[in-house]
């Protein structure tokens, strides 16, 4: 039986080698260390993302230690038992998503394009005289922070606070959270609740042209979003909107550094930008895994899965399945068949996908406009992320104009 060990240093550098061995030898793998089933085939991951009848997003239904931990965390969480889009099933999920999707629309995102271009231009101007800089700290991190803050209506003076809160909350996606990480996440949640509660009250009194004001007025079938539901989605948007976009950009930069011919090809032909973004998402997905709970006893690829057991659809592995993608280990900006699962699928398909694509497109276009060459610097690269998220905390680069 193939061995899956995500705790060795080599896994953080390149998880796809282990995923390949699992996919070949044990595609529905029971990890005793994670108390979970690990899925690595595209077909299997696709199946559980779409099958809401047999798989739940609500961790409270998990059996064993994981379920007890989730239920206890929900009891002690500063947000209490408030439903979040990520952790709730239909029909509650349907109501929340219907309200939120009417406000957080592709059209609203499209209207942000000129402002995102301005923000990107300002950030590039700050490093214009440098031939070496940290891609994450200078560009990939601040761009989505500023965009999300402005989208929600948050003042520029509070942006750094938001990034600090986002980092603490994103760290809890690790399957082995330290007590310190959990404590810091709860403290960050308390601070966010206090901040957003005052902010939501202010918008109820005096609405403005921002997403919080839109959520305050939004309703479905006569039922408005509660303050707690607005809080939960704002926090979700803060974490998902910042962390995953930063990872998308950072992972894309390292792919281009390792594939200089691709850099040159896109620089010469911007029509390749959309397919390049999709290939970055497939090749090194910012979200590596999605967690579901089996609602019923069932069988998958000959393995018996009991109700309450945790199932991890490793979409990063699915995106490298040779049954779905030709030569998946190659970074191919001309790839035509690229139905990756990086934004999920089904009812939980990522609402922020259009925004992430737009931010990445704007930033990479300016990168190609400004620089003729980009290379890795001699300084050490720092990998961040968790089992479910993949990215960098530091990515030094050298550039030539």
How would you characterize the overall build of this protein?
The protein is of the alpha+beta class. The protein has a single domain (9-400), classed as Orthogonal Bundle (Cytochrome p450), CATH 1.10.630. Helix content is 51%, strand content 11%. The protein has helices at residues 9-13, 16-25, 42-50, 64-76, 92-103, 106-111, 113-126, 135-140, 142-152, 159-170, 179-205, 211-217, 227-258, 260-268, 273-283, 315-318, 353-370, and strands at 28-31, 36-39, 55-56, 132-134, 219-220, 223-224, 290-294, 298-300, 303-305, 310-313, 373-376, 382-383, 392-394, 396-400. The strands form five sheets. Strands 1-2-10-7-3 form a five-stranded mixed beta sheet. β5 (219-220) and β6 (223-224) form a beta hairpin. α7 packs antiparallel against α9 (142-152), α10 (159-170) crosses α11 and α11 (179-205) crosses α12. The protein is globular, with a radius of gyration of 21 Å. The protein starts with 8 loop residues before the first helix and ends with a strand.
Oligomer: single chain
What is the averaged pLDDT score?
Answer: 86
Strands side by side in the biggest sheet: 1-2-10-7-3
Q: How far do the termini sit from each other?
A: 51 Å
Q: What share of residues are in beta strands?
A: 5-15%
According to CATH, what is the topology?
Cytochrome p450
- Spans where pLDDT lies below 50 across 5 or more residues: none
Can you tell me the CATH architecture? Orthogonal Bundle
The coarse silhouette is globular
The helix content is: 40-55%
Number of domains: 1
Largest sheet: 5 strands, mixed
Query: How many E-type strands?
Result: 14
Radius of gyration (CA) equals: 21 Å
CATH class: Mainly Alpha
DSSP summary: helix tally: 17
CATH homology-level superfamily: Cytochrome P450
Computed structural class: alpha+beta
């Amino acid at each position: 039986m193939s061995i899956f060990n995500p705790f060795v240093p080599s896994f953080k550098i390149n998880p796809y080698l282990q995923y390949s061995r699992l996919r070949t030898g044990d595609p529905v793998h029971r990890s005793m260390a994670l108390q979970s089933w690990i899925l690595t085939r595209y077909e299997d991951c696709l199946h559980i993302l779409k099958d809401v009848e047999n798989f739940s997003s609500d961790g409270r239904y998990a059996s064993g230690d994981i379920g007890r931990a989730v239920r206890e965390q929900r009891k002690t969480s500063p947000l209490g038992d408030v439903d979040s889009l990520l952790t709730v099933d239909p029909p509650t999920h349907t109501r929340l998503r219907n309200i939120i999707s009417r406000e957080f629309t592709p059209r609203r995102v499209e209207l942000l394009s000129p402002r995102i271009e301005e923000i990107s231009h300002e950030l590039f101007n700050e490093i214009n005289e440098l031939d070496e800089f940290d891609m994450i700290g200078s560009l990939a991190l601040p761009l989505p922070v500023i965009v999300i803050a402005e989208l929600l209506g948050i003042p520029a003076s509070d942006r750094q606070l938001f990034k600090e809160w986002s980092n603490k909350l994103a760290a809890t996606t690790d399957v082995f959270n330290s007590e310190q990480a959990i404590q810091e996440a709860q403290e960050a949640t308390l601070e966010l609740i206090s901040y957003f509660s005052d902010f939501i009250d202010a918008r109820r009194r005096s609405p403005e042209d921002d997403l919080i004001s839109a959520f305050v007025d939004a309703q479905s079938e006569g039922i408005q979003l509660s303050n707690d539901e607005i809080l939960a989605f704002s926090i979700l948007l803060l974490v998902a909107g910042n962390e995953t976009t930063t990872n998308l950009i950072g992972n894309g930069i390292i792919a281009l550094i390792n594939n200089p011919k691709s850099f040159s090809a896109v620089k010469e032909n911007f029509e390749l930008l959309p397919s390049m973004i999709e290939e970055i998402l497939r090749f090194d997905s910012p979200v590596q895994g999605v967690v579901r709970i089996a609602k019923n006893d069932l069988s998958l690829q000959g393995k018996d899965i009991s109700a309450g057991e945790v199932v991890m659809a490793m979409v990063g592995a699915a995106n490298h399945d040779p049954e779905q993608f030709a030569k998946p280990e190659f970074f191919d900006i001309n790839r035509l068949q690229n139905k990756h699962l990086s934004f999920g699928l089904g009812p939980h398909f990522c609402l922020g996908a259009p925004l992430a694509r737009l931010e990445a497109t704007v930033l990479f276009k300016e990168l190609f406009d400004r620089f003729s060459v980009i290379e890795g610097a001699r300084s050490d690269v720092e990998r961040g992320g968790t089992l479910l998220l993949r990215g960098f905390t530091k990515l030094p680069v050298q550039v030539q104009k």
